[in-house]
Amino acid sequence: MTLPAALGLEPILAQAASTEALFDAFVGIVGFALLAGGTAAGIAFVFRWYSADGIPEGVAILLGVSMVAIWLNAQSALQQVISGDAELLELSTVAFTVAAFVASAIAADGGRRLGDHLATDVFAVATPRTITEVGQLVRSAGRVVAVELPEEIADVDGYDPVEESTKTELAGHTLLFPRRLSTDDLRERLIARLERDYGIGHVDVEFGADRTIDYLALGSRPAGIGSTLAPGTVAVAIRGDPAPDASPGDAVRIWRCDDDSLRRAASGELRGVADDVATVAVDADDAGTLSTDEEYRLVTLPRDPGAERDLVSLLRAADETVTTLPVDAGDPLESAAVGSLPVFVLAVDRGAAGADPLALPSGETRLEAGDVAYVLGRPDALRRISDLERPLTADLESDSNVAAAAGASAGSEVDPDADSDPETDPTADDDAESVDDASPERTRER
């Protein structure tokens, strides 16, 4: 019999050994939790710094627990190599492993939150909050140029106007671009940014010599089917069964089912199909004969889409547009050759009585007073043509103002003794001063 057994100390020693084992297991579980939490916190911090976004929860927890799994696997493999008895399937070992993984997962989630919070606070302090701070930061390196949009934004001729809220948001807004861009590249970058960030369809911008914006006009792309309909046609939805291979743009003939016979109802162009409902473009007179309750048969005709539809499809995706250009008497465009214009002239509607319209006129054709030209061009080209009329209008207004001033001066000379008492008429002195200021020679003659 051993001495501890003789003294009755075996139960006490066994309890002390069990307590020590539990304490070691607790310390190990806490250590694994700290390892997982620290790993998740570091990964969350780096991820926030690199991507400016929070790391997904599952990824951070998985990476934190993976470090614990690697540690336990390495410890078990090392124990098996050294002692040859790993005791991996004992209840105490299994309980310790499960507890370590559970604590590590909880700690990893907490570490993810802590690391993301710390990264957010650190970078929020270092990140500029206002345009002034950004300007001080980037201008110190001389790498950007600030482009300020004008307070007044016009509408592009020939396009639908953008919403007023968008104009208000852009008015006076400052955009930053790389400094080394040329004026043309800066213009393209500005147009692309406005179209991408604000959903603007067309942008007409003109830069000055100092790379500031002198003129800015915005336009939106036409949406819907209405802008593609020819004059005198409407789009209606009917119940029908077009051919399976029929596509928008195909010419169709609409037949009405009367008992066992078919009767022709109208002809049109297929614009869209949704289940058993077809949208067709027909003449406005034929639209009233079609009913939404009846079911029709649609027969596809062997005809290619017209050139006008191809032109409309291209215009909806291109920057160019078609607009009318009237030519008045005395207009700078009068007697101008079609080939000298910065736009492409599609047709000219002659204003002379009995004159036939000209389709695709030659470059030598000259515009006459009363003509209406249908032109195709970009917004900046259309604006250059409209600017040709402004000097003439300004001259006419200036001439009218000069004539009015001359008439007022002549009237004052004809009736110099008009009733104008300065004491009773307070405006007499003002009128006299304005007349004297306008005619200094007449004052000297007096």
UniProtKB/TrEMBL annotation:
The keyword Kinase does not apply. InterPro entries: DUF8167_2nd, DUF8167_3rd, DUF8167_N, RCK_C, RCK_C_sf. GO terms for molecular function: monoatomic cation transmembrane transporter activity. GO terms for biological process: potassium ion transport. Residues 403-412 have a biased composition (Low complexity). Residues 414-438 have a biased composition (Acidic residues). Residues 396-446 are annotated as: Disordered. Residues 309-391 form the RCK C-terminal domain. The chain crosses the membrane at residues 26-47, 59-82. Keywords: Membrane, Transmembrane, Transmembrane helix. This is TrkA-C domain-containing protein.
